[in-house]
Amino acid sequence: MEHRPGLDPAVADIRRAVRAALAGVTGTVIVGLSGGADSLALTAAVAFEAPKAGIAATAVVVDHGLQGGSADVAARAAQQANALGLQARVVRVDVGDDGGPEAAARTARRAALHQAARDAGASAILLAHTLDDQAETVLLGLARGAGATSLAGMAPAREEDGVVWLRPLLSVRRDTTQAACTAEGLGSWQDPHNADRRFTRVRVRADVLPVLERELGPGVAEALARTADQLREDADAFAAMIDETIEDIVEHVEAGIAVSVPALAANPPALRHRIIRHVVASEFGESLTRAQTLEVARLVTDWSGQGPIDLPACRARRVGRRIEFTAS
Protein backbone atom coordinates (compact mmCIF):
# COMPACT_ATOMS: atom_id res chain seq x y z
CA MET A 1 0.00 0.00 0.00
CA GLU A 2 1.27 3.50 -0.87
CA HIS A 3 2.30 5.66 2.09
CA ARG A 4 3.04 8.91 0.29
CA PRO A 5 1.19 11.81 1.95
CA GLY A 6 -1.26 13.37 -0.44
CA LEU A 7 -0.61 10.91 -3.24
CA ASP A 8 -3.74 10.66 -5.36
CA PRO A 9 -5.29 7.15 -5.21
CA ALA A 10 -5.50 6.90 -9.00
CA VAL A 11 -1.82 7.78 -9.38
CA ALA A 12 -0.95 5.26 -6.66
CA ASP A 13 -2.94 2.49 -8.38
CA ILE A 14 -1.17 3.01 -11.69
CA ARG A 15 2.29 3.27 -10.15
CA ARG A 16 1.66 0.07 -8.23
CA ALA A 17 0.59 -1.74 -11.41
CA VAL A 18 3.65 -0.51 -13.29
CA ARG A 19 5.96 -1.44 -10.41
CA ALA A 20 4.63 -5.00 -10.48
CA ALA A 21 5.02 -5.24 -14.26
CA LEU A 22 8.62 -4.03 -14.13
CA ALA A 23 9.63 -6.54 -11.47
CA GLY A 24 12.31 -8.75 -13.00
CA VAL A 25 12.75 -6.51 -16.06
CA THR A 26 16.28 -5.30 -16.75
CA GLY A 27 17.94 -2.95 -19.17
CA THR A 28 15.78 -0.69 -21.31
CA VAL A 29 12.04 -0.57 -21.94
CA ILE A 30 9.92 1.22 -24.52
CA VAL A 31 6.62 2.89 -23.63
CA GLY A 32 4.02 3.22 -26.38
CA LEU A 33 2.60 6.75 -26.05
CA SER A 34 -0.30 8.22 -28.03
CA GLY A 35 -1.02 11.23 -25.85
CA GLY A 36 -4.36 9.79 -24.70
CA ALA A 37 -5.15 9.46 -21.00
CA ASP A 38 -4.30 5.75 -20.78
CA SER A 39 -0.84 5.95 -22.34
CA LEU A 40 -0.06 9.29 -20.71
CA ALA A 41 -0.86 7.93 -17.24
CA LEU A 42 1.27 4.87 -18.03
CA THR A 43 4.16 7.04 -19.21
CA ALA A 44 4.03 9.15 -16.04
CA ALA A 45 4.09 6.03 -13.87
CA VAL A 46 7.00 4.52 -15.81
CA ALA A 47 8.91 7.81 -15.52
CA PHE A 48 8.50 7.55 -11.74
CA GLU A 49 9.04 3.81 -11.23
CA ALA A 50 11.67 2.86 -13.84
CA PRO A 51 14.58 4.86 -12.37
CA LYS A 52 13.94 3.37 -8.93
CA ALA A 53 14.19 -0.11 -10.51
CA GLY A 54 17.38 0.76 -12.39
CA ILE A 55 15.58 0.59 -15.73
CA ALA A 56 16.09 3.00 -18.63
CA ALA A 57 12.82 3.96 -20.30
CA THR A 58 12.08 5.68 -23.59
CA ALA A 59 8.72 6.81 -24.93
CA VAL A 60 7.86 6.19 -28.58
CA VAL A 61 5.00 8.09 -30.17
CA VAL A 62 3.65 6.50 -33.35
CA ASP A 63 2.14 9.01 -35.79
CA HIS A 64 -0.23 7.11 -38.06
CA GLY A 65 -0.89 10.16 -40.21
CA LEU A 66 -4.58 9.27 -40.44
CA GLN A 67 -5.95 12.56 -39.10
CA GLY A 68 -5.26 16.20 -39.77
CA GLY A 69 -2.85 17.60 -37.23
CA SER A 70 -1.54 14.18 -36.21
CA ALA A 71 2.05 15.43 -36.34
CA ASP A 72 1.21 18.18 -33.84
CA VAL A 73 -0.52 15.67 -31.54
CA ALA A 74 2.51 13.38 -31.68
CA ALA A 75 4.94 16.23 -31.02
CA ARG A 76 2.93 17.38 -28.00
CA ALA A 77 2.85 13.83 -26.59
CA ALA A 78 6.63 13.60 -26.98
CA GLN A 79 7.05 16.96 -25.21
CA GLN A 80 4.93 15.72 -22.30
CA ALA A 81 7.10 12.61 -22.01
CA ASN A 82 10.21 14.80 -21.98
CA ALA A 83 8.70 16.96 -19.25
CA LEU A 84 8.08 13.81 -17.21
CA GLY A 85 11.74 12.90 -17.52
CA LEU A 86 11.65 10.39 -20.37
CA GLN A 87 13.40 10.72 -23.67
CA ALA A 88 10.83 10.46 -26.47
CA ARG A 89 10.80 10.21 -30.20
CA VAL A 90 8.11 10.28 -32.85
CA VAL A 91 7.91 7.57 -35.51
CA ARG A 92 5.78 8.21 -38.60
CA VAL A 93 4.28 5.09 -40.19
CA ASP A 94 2.41 4.30 -43.37
CA VAL A 95 -0.86 2.51 -42.64
CA GLY A 96 -2.12 -0.01 -45.18
CA ASP A 97 -5.67 -1.23 -45.59
CA ASP A 98 -5.46 -4.96 -44.80
CA GLY A 99 -8.20 -5.97 -42.39
CA GLY A 100 -9.72 -2.50 -42.15
CA PRO A 101 -8.38 0.76 -40.72
CA GLU A 102 -8.22 -0.34 -37.07
CA ALA A 103 -6.35 -3.56 -37.79
CA ALA A 104 -4.03 -1.90 -40.30
CA ALA A 105 -3.15 0.89 -37.85
CA ARG A 106 -2.53 -1.66 -35.11
CA THR A 107 -0.24 -3.69 -37.37
CA ALA A 108 1.76 -0.61 -38.37
CA ARG A 109 1.99 0.57 -34.77
CA ARG A 110 3.20 -2.76 -33.42
CA ALA A 111 5.81 -3.03 -36.17
CA ALA A 112 7.08 0.46 -35.37
CA LEU A 113 7.28 -0.22 -31.63
CA HIS A 114 9.01 -3.54 -32.20
CA GLN A 115 11.58 -1.91 -34.47
CA ALA A 116 12.11 0.86 -31.91
CA ALA A 117 12.72 -1.78 -29.24
CA ARG A 118 15.26 -3.55 -31.44
CA ASP A 119 17.02 -0.27 -32.23
CA ALA A 120 17.25 0.58 -28.53
CA GLY A 121 18.15 -2.93 -27.43
CA ALA A 122 15.03 -2.88 -25.24
CA SER A 123 13.83 -6.02 -23.52
CA ALA A 124 10.19 -4.96 -23.14
CA ILE A 125 7.49 -2.76 -24.65
CA LEU A 126 4.80 -1.36 -22.35
CA LEU A 127 1.30 -0.79 -23.71
CA ALA A 128 -1.56 1.06 -22.00
CA HIS A 129 -4.53 -1.27 -22.52
CA THR A 130 -6.92 -1.10 -19.58
CA LEU A 131 -9.49 -3.40 -18.02
CA ASP A 132 -12.12 -1.66 -20.18
CA ASP A 133 -10.16 -2.53 -23.33
CA GLN A 134 -9.98 -6.13 -22.16
CA ALA A 135 -13.75 -6.28 -21.55
CA GLU A 136 -14.42 -4.85 -25.01
CA THR A 137 -12.09 -7.42 -26.58
CA VAL A 138 -13.93 -10.29 -24.88
CA LEU A 139 -17.34 -8.97 -25.95
CA LEU A 140 -16.18 -8.62 -29.55
CA GLY A 141 -14.87 -12.17 -29.44
CA LEU A 142 -18.20 -13.43 -28.10
CA ALA A 143 -20.04 -11.62 -30.88
CA ARG A 144 -17.84 -13.31 -33.50
CA GLY A 145 -18.27 -16.74 -31.93
CA ALA A 146 -14.53 -16.90 -31.31
CA GLY A 147 -12.87 -19.76 -29.47
CA ALA A 148 -11.33 -19.75 -26.02
CA THR A 149 -7.97 -18.49 -27.28
CA SER A 150 -9.54 -15.31 -28.68
CA LEU A 151 -11.79 -14.86 -25.65
CA ALA A 152 -8.68 -15.03 -23.46
CA GLY A 153 -8.09 -11.47 -24.61
CA MET A 154 -4.81 -9.67 -24.10
CA ALA A 155 -2.12 -11.17 -21.91
CA PRO A 156 -0.41 -9.04 -19.25
CA ALA A 157 2.93 -10.29 -20.60
CA ARG A 158 3.71 -12.03 -23.86
CA GLU A 159 7.08 -12.64 -25.51
CA GLU A 160 7.27 -12.25 -29.26
CA ASP A 161 10.44 -12.25 -31.35
CA GLY A 162 12.68 -11.71 -28.35
CA VAL A 163 10.73 -8.79 -26.88
CA VAL A 164 8.23 -8.96 -24.01
CA TRP A 165 5.02 -6.99 -24.54
CA LEU A 166 3.75 -5.81 -21.16
CA ARG A 167 0.28 -4.48 -20.38
CA PRO A 168 0.47 -3.27 -16.77
CA LEU A 169 -2.95 -1.61 -16.74
CA LEU A 170 -5.20 -4.58 -17.54
CA SER A 171 -6.54 -4.47 -13.97
CA VAL A 172 -7.06 -0.67 -14.06
CA ARG A 173 -10.26 1.02 -15.22
CA ARG A 174 -10.19 3.74 -17.84
CA ASP A 175 -11.62 6.33 -15.45
CA THR A 176 -8.62 5.69 -13.18
CA THR A 177 -6.16 6.69 -15.91
CA GLN A 178 -8.19 9.82 -16.58
CA ALA A 179 -8.23 10.66 -12.88
CA ALA A 180 -4.47 10.11 -12.67
CA CYS A 181 -3.85 12.52 -15.55
CA THR A 182 -6.03 15.14 -13.87
CA ALA A 183 -4.24 14.67 -10.55
CA GLU A 184 -0.82 15.09 -12.19
CA GLY A 185 -1.88 18.04 -14.33
CA LEU A 186 -1.43 16.16 -17.60
CA GLY A 187 -3.59 17.29 -20.49
CA SER A 188 -4.56 14.22 -22.49
CA TRP A 189 -5.53 14.08 -26.14
CA GLN A 190 -9.05 12.97 -27.05
CA ASP A 191 -8.80 10.79 -30.16
CA PRO A 192 -11.79 11.58 -32.44
CA HIS A 193 -11.75 7.94 -33.58
CA ASN A 194 -12.78 6.94 -30.06
CA ALA A 195 -16.14 8.61 -30.70
CA ASP A 196 -16.54 7.47 -34.32
CA ARG A 197 -19.47 5.07 -34.41
CA ARG A 198 -18.29 3.53 -37.67
CA PHE A 199 -15.97 1.43 -35.53
CA THR A 200 -17.47 -1.62 -33.85
CA ARG A 201 -15.33 -1.19 -30.75
CA VAL A 202 -16.70 2.34 -30.27
CA ARG A 203 -20.27 1.04 -30.37
CA VAL A 204 -19.38 -1.67 -27.85
CA ARG A 205 -17.84 0.98 -25.59
CA ALA A 206 -20.58 3.58 -25.95
CA ASP A 207 -23.69 1.38 -26.21
CA VAL A 208 -23.27 -2.31 -25.44
CA LEU A 209 -21.30 -2.20 -22.19
CA PRO A 210 -23.43 0.59 -20.66
CA VAL A 211 -26.61 -1.38 -21.47
CA LEU A 212 -25.17 -4.50 -19.86
CA GLU A 213 -24.15 -2.53 -16.78
CA ARG A 214 -27.60 -0.97 -16.55
CA GLU A 215 -29.59 -4.15 -17.12
CA LEU A 216 -27.38 -6.70 -15.36
CA GLY A 217 -25.88 -4.53 -12.67
CA PRO A 218 -22.41 -3.07 -12.13
CA GLY A 219 -19.29 -5.16 -12.50
CA VAL A 220 -19.84 -6.50 -16.02
CA ALA A 221 -16.51 -5.19 -17.29
CA GLU A 222 -14.67 -6.74 -14.37
CA ALA A 223 -16.49 -10.04 -14.91
CA LEU A 224 -15.51 -10.08 -18.59
CA ALA A 225 -11.88 -9.40 -17.66
CA ARG A 226 -11.96 -12.26 -15.14
CA THR A 227 -13.35 -14.51 -17.86
CA ALA A 228 -10.39 -13.60 -20.05
CA ASP A 229 -7.98 -14.45 -17.23
CA GLN A 230 -9.57 -17.86 -16.69
CA LEU A 231 -9.68 -18.72 -20.37
CA ARG A 232 -6.07 -17.61 -20.82
CA GLU A 233 -5.05 -20.04 -18.08
CA ASP A 234 -6.91 -22.80 -19.91
CA ALA A 235 -5.39 -21.84 -23.26
CA ASP A 236 -1.88 -21.81 -21.79
CA ALA A 237 -2.46 -25.24 -20.25
CA PHE A 238 -3.66 -26.66 -23.58
CA ALA A 239 -0.69 -25.10 -25.36
CA ALA A 240 1.69 -26.76 -22.91
CA MET A 241 -0.02 -30.12 -23.42
CA ILE A 242 0.26 -29.79 -27.18
CA ASP A 243 3.95 -28.85 -26.96
CA GLU A 244 4.57 -31.99 -24.89
CA THR A 245 2.84 -34.35 -27.31
CA ILE A 246 3.08 -32.84 -30.79
CA GLU A 247 6.50 -34.22 -31.72
CA ASP A 248 5.39 -37.76 -30.92
CA ILE A 249 2.31 -37.71 -33.16
CA VAL A 250 3.47 -35.82 -36.27
CA GLU A 251 5.90 -36.57 -39.05
CA HIS A 252 6.96 -34.67 -42.12
CA VAL A 253 5.76 -35.76 -45.54
CA GLU A 254 6.40 -34.37 -48.98
CA ALA A 255 5.20 -30.74 -49.09
CA GLY A 256 3.60 -30.95 -45.70
CA ILE A 257 3.06 -32.74 -42.43
CA ALA A 258 1.09 -35.77 -41.20
CA VAL A 259 -0.64 -36.47 -37.88
CA SER A 260 -1.36 -39.89 -36.40
CA VAL A 261 -5.06 -40.82 -36.54
CA PRO A 262 -4.93 -43.09 -33.46
CA ALA A 263 -3.23 -40.34 -31.47
CA LEU A 264 -5.84 -37.78 -32.48
CA ALA A 265 -8.65 -40.22 -31.75
CA ALA A 266 -7.25 -40.93 -28.28
CA ASN A 267 -7.50 -37.29 -27.27
CA PRO A 268 -10.68 -35.50 -26.16
CA PRO A 269 -12.27 -33.21 -28.78
CA ALA A 270 -10.95 -30.01 -27.22
CA LEU A 271 -7.35 -31.16 -27.48
CA ARG A 272 -7.87 -32.91 -30.84
CA HIS A 273 -9.23 -29.71 -32.39
CA ARG A 274 -6.41 -27.61 -30.94
CA ILE A 275 -3.81 -29.99 -32.37
CA ILE A 276 -5.39 -29.71 -35.81
CA ARG A 277 -5.41 -25.91 -35.63
CA HIS A 278 -1.88 -25.86 -34.26
CA VAL A 279 -0.54 -28.02 -37.09
CA VAL A 280 -2.06 -25.82 -39.79
CA ALA A 281 -1.01 -22.58 -38.09
CA SER A 282 2.59 -23.65 -37.46
CA GLU A 283 3.15 -25.36 -40.82
CA PHE A 284 1.18 -23.09 -43.17
CA GLY A 285 0.66 -19.89 -41.17
CA GLU A 286 -3.12 -19.99 -41.43
CA SER A 287 -5.93 -20.06 -38.87
CA LEU A 288 -8.80 -22.51 -39.28
CA THR A 289 -12.42 -21.68 -38.53
CA ARG A 290 -14.35 -24.00 -36.27
CA ALA A 291 -16.26 -25.40 -39.25
CA GLN A 292 -13.00 -26.22 -41.04
CA THR A 293 -11.55 -27.77 -37.90
CA LEU A 294 -14.59 -30.00 -37.44
CA GLU A 295 -14.40 -31.16 -41.06
CA VAL A 296 -10.81 -32.24 -40.57
CA ALA A 297 -11.72 -33.92 -37.27
CA ARG A 298 -14.33 -36.00 -39.12
CA LEU A 299 -11.45 -37.62 -41.01
CA VAL A 300 -10.55 -39.08 -37.62
CA THR A 301 -13.88 -39.72 -35.93
CA ASP A 302 -16.28 -40.24 -38.84
CA TRP A 303 -14.18 -41.65 -41.64
CA SER A 304 -16.22 -43.02 -44.52
CA GLY A 305 -13.84 -42.54 -47.43
CA GLN A 306 -14.52 -38.83 -47.97
CA GLY A 307 -12.06 -37.02 -50.17
CA PRO A 308 -9.54 -34.26 -49.43
CA ILE A 309 -10.64 -31.10 -47.63
CA ASP A 310 -9.48 -27.78 -49.03
CA LEU A 311 -8.20 -25.45 -46.31
CA PRO A 312 -6.42 -22.10 -46.34
CA ALA A 313 -2.99 -22.66 -47.97
CA CYS A 314 -3.24 -26.44 -47.63
CA ARG A 315 -5.30 -29.60 -48.13
CA ALA A 316 -6.11 -32.31 -45.59
CA ARG A 317 -6.74 -35.94 -46.50
CA ARG A 318 -6.70 -39.27 -44.74
CA VAL A 319 -4.05 -41.74 -45.88
CA GLY A 320 -4.25 -44.95 -43.92
CA ARG A 321 -3.61 -44.18 -40.27
CA ARG A 322 -2.49 -40.62 -40.90
CA ILE A 323 -4.05 -37.25 -41.69
CA GLU A 324 -1.79 -35.55 -44.21
CA PHE A 325 -1.71 -31.75 -44.57
CA THR A 326 -0.02 -30.69 -47.80
CA ALA A 327 0.44 -27.31 -49.45
CA SER A 328 -2.29 -26.47 -51.94
UniProtKB/TrEMBL annotation:
UniProt domain tRNA(Ile)-lysidine synthase substrate-binding: residue ranges: 260-321
Record GO biological process: tRNA modification
Protein's cellular compartments: Cytoplasm
SUPFAM superfamilies: Adenine nucleotide alpha hydrolases-like (SSF52402), MesJ substrate recognition domain-like (SSF82829)
Stored InterPro entries: Rossmann-like_a/b/a_fold, TilS/TtcA_N, tRNA_Ile_lys_synt, tRNA_Ile_lys_synt_N, tRNA_Ile_lys_synt_subst-bd
EC number, UniProt record: 6.3.4.19
Binding site for ATP: 34-39
UniProt similarity note: Belongs to the tRNA(Ile)-lysidine synthase family.
Function: Ligates lysine onto the cytidine present at position 34 of the AUA codon-specific tRNA(Ile) that contains the anticodon CAU, in an ATP-dependent manner. Cytidine is converted to lysidine, thus changing the amino acid specificity of the tRNA from methionine to isoleucine.
NCBIfam families tied to this protein: lysidine_TilS_N
Protein name: tRNA(Ile)-lysidine synthase
Organism: Microbacterium invictum
